[in-house]
Amino acid sequence: MPFIETALAGAYIIEPRVFEDHRGYFFECYNKNSFDKETGADVTFVQDNESYSGFGTLRGLHYQAGEHAQAKLVRVIHGKVLDVAVDLREDSPTYGQHISVELTAENRKQLFVPRGFGHGFVVLSETALFAYKCDNFYNKESEGGIMYNDPKLDINWGIEEKDIVLSEKDGILPTFGNHRKAI
Q1: pLDDT one-digit tens code per residue, 134-175
Q2: Cβ atoms of residues 38 and 96 within 8 Å
Q3: Range(s) of the domain holding residue 35
Q4: Is residue 38 within a helix (H) or strand (E), and if so which, with residue range?
Q5: Most buried among 41, 54, 110, 149, using CB within 10 Å?
Q6: Looking at the DSSP assignment, which residues form a beta bridge with residue 119?
């Protein structure tokens, strides 16, 4: 199972080894020993989440601050998304930079998003089933976010602006320069 480090230190694209035959397929989507060895991270996931969304739904950019910060291992079970991680670690040489990865049910790629990153995705298919593991429990008081279309971040979400569907909460997130910096 290749672990490919991205341009943002600590963030990895993981390509599982898939075994397919006439019955279907099998793959190991997480193995703590391999994960720790390949990433150097000592992460213990404590919560699994899943979301189902239609085309154009954009969830993000979200993060948990302070002691409630979360690392995530994300993947798509059905459909296709553009997944985005933004480095919010102020002491990082890649602070304010982002990566984008297309995650699909077909390519079965996963993205490991370390603590200290903002995260979001947009659905590129008719529908998508998105699943992710977190290494810390959600804490409402510690949630933060950055507006998806912040000009400083200049993220290309891969679809037209008119097709983006946001929650009310995501539509009023602060800009990168004004977000909560307690990561």
Answers
A1: 999 999 999 999 999 999 999 999 999 999 999 999 999 999
A2: no
A3: 3-178
A4: helix 32-39
A5: 110
A6: 62, 85
Q: Are 27 and 16 in contact, with CB atoms under 8 Å apart?
A: yes
Does residue 155 contact residue 148 with C-beta atoms inside 8 Å?
A: yes
The answer to whether the CB of 116 falls within 8 A of the CB of 92 is: yes
CATH number (domain holding residue 106):
2.60.120.10
Is residue 56 domain-resident?
yes
**Which tokens in the block code for residue 24?**
């279907």
Evaluate if pTM is beyond 0.70. yes
Residues in CB range of 175: below 8 A, 6 or more apart: 146, 147, 150, 152
| pLDDT for position 1 | 72
Rg (CA), the chain: 16
- Are residues 98 and 85 in contact, defined by beta-carbon separation less than 8 angstroms? yes
Q: How confident is the model at residue 181 (pLDDT cuts 50, 70, 90)?
A: low
Which residues are tagged catalytic?
Answer: 62, 132
Distance, in Å, from the CA atom of 17 to the CA atom of 29, rounded to the nearest integer, reads 9
Q: How confident is the model at residue 122 (pLDDT cuts 50, 70, 90)?
A: very high
Quick one: pLDDT band at residue 180, thresholds 50, 70, 90?
low
Which residues partner with 109 through β-bridges? none
